[in-house]
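Before the break, one more example. Copy the sequence into your notebook; we will annotate it together after we see the structure.
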Amino acid sequence: MEIVYVYTKLRKEFGRQCLFSDRPAELLADVLPEPSLSREFITTTPRDQAQQVYREMSEHQVNTEHFESASIGINHVEGGWPKDINPEDMEQTLRYRKKVEKDERYTNSILQLASVMEHYIRQNNAVDIYEEYLEEEMEVVGVQEPPSAKTINVFRDPNKVKRTITGLSWHPDSGRKLATANSCLKFQKASEDMSPDSYIWDIENPNRPDMALTPTSPLICLEYNPKDSYTLVGGSFNGQIAFWDTRRGSHPVQFSPLEQSHRDPLYKVVWLQSKTGTDTFSASTDGQILWWDVRKLSEPTERLVLDLGKEENLNRALGAISLEFETTMPTKFMVGTEQGIIVSCNRKAKTPAEKIVSTYESHHGPIYALQRNSFFPKNFLTVGDSIARIWSEDIKDSFIMQTKNQMASLTDACWSPVRPSIFLTVRMDGVLDVWDILFKQNDPTLSLKVCDKALNSLRIHDNGRLVACGSEQGDVMLLEICSELSTIQNNEKNLLSAMFERETKREKVLVAQQREIRLKEKGQMEQGKEEEGGQEELEESPEKLIARAEKDFYSMIEME
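Here is what the structure looks like once it is written out:
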């Protein structure tokens, strides 16, 4: 039985009912202070006194039990290596690992740990304690905001003479640092008082560089080592390649001698996928691709001349200004040239002539950007003239997609690392374009005027949100794009794969039709020539009649 008690009170005991109404404010009284009373005012010094008016509570049965926790950890200063092993020596650490892996105790320990780990993995597969069961119900369908981007920071060249940002590289671990290559590429415009320094910036501090890199010649490109965040490699204007360890200061640890380096400016340098993490290769307009080991830069480990005649003639070599290397394809790489030709190469070929596999005639001018799609490596993006084009490795005669001609020339481009259908381009008029080819192909999804000067370089962070744009005036604009452009959509990979396959098949059909038309025209021309030859045998052509008349005329004059 439930006990209910009702409290009652008469309406008249509540007092008069309040009736509120809206009306403007009005001044009821204005009392001015009297100066005579201010003399009688007594000032008192403030005094703080604590008062406890809340009644004390006794312990109740609903209080939880008190639990004390303590954080305990072990600090390995050198990673737990023995005293006789130098952790910075790669060969010693590899040798020690192999020795440990052969030990029986190591195998037994791994088996014991694996059984425990397998137990918890099976538990998690049975019941996912982190699963959000109401995720779909909690989703609120709202209106999608239009694509947008905002400028976070601007990093300016600290020198009086401003230089173009020709290269950008993100820190591989945290992404809080950005390395910039500053140089002047204008012919005979570099002055003597122009600084050769390039810089490493902290993205949270745009006031001054975090560190300066001082090369022997201004850097055109530079790249962080993806396996060692303290090391960088850069390509100089005089063709040298330099190697930095930021723990050792701003000067390069090693640099290649001039006689073994490139003969022209070094436009692109890329780290290779290797066990040691010290291999790299570089490209220059002198027509050479050189492979290096940064531990020994006295001479290149390998050399390739981009001579399409496969005779290794440096005078006929194509000048290289862009490189593409995908870690999932360790034996393949692609080179973009000044002549608008893409050269596909195989590094593991036996002879230099066999290393050049095929070519793509892509643009009328230099190919400023060349990059594979990380989700679909068979498809790659190129930028040249005022057009960006998407290619398929299966078709060498034509591209599968392209943008329309822009009002200004394109200078750089890159794919989004998180969304396979999005790529970005920068132009000479200072505009950043974001293209979503699943949404529309003729126009960019987002166009943003970043600065008034030309944009020369572009680099997007691995998270897909931060974009760095380098200008001709030496400024680096750091932008953040909206979440719609940096979050992969549902079924996006399948839709883009179907689009690439469809466009590739369509282009193959068109190429085959064009080939048939050319063969027919060639056959008709040969047939026409044969018919003309037969008529000449039966009937002399007008040219022969004129030549015979001239010959008879001159012979008559000689006789007279």
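Residues 138-142 have pLDDT under 50 and may be disordered. Helices lie at 35-39, 90-101, 104-126, 135-138, 352-355, 483-486, 492-538, 542-559. Try to locate both features in your own notes.
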